[in-house]
Specification:
mainly alpha; 2 helices; 0% strand
Length: 41
């Protein structure tokens, strides 16, 4: 489980918005979400 600070959560939201702008497929897979969380650190 990840514990995100407010800044990390904001960064993660930005990455998710970019992801959904690029791909119209809907939800991202688990490994993709894990990569976005890791990248937000």
């Amino acid at each position: 489980m990840y514990r995100l600070t407010a800044r990390m959560e904001q960064t993660l939201r930005q990455y998710l918005e970019k992801y959904h702008d690029l791909f119209d497929g809907g939800r991202c897979s688990g490994w993709e979400l894990e990569e976005l969380v890791f990248k937000s650190y």
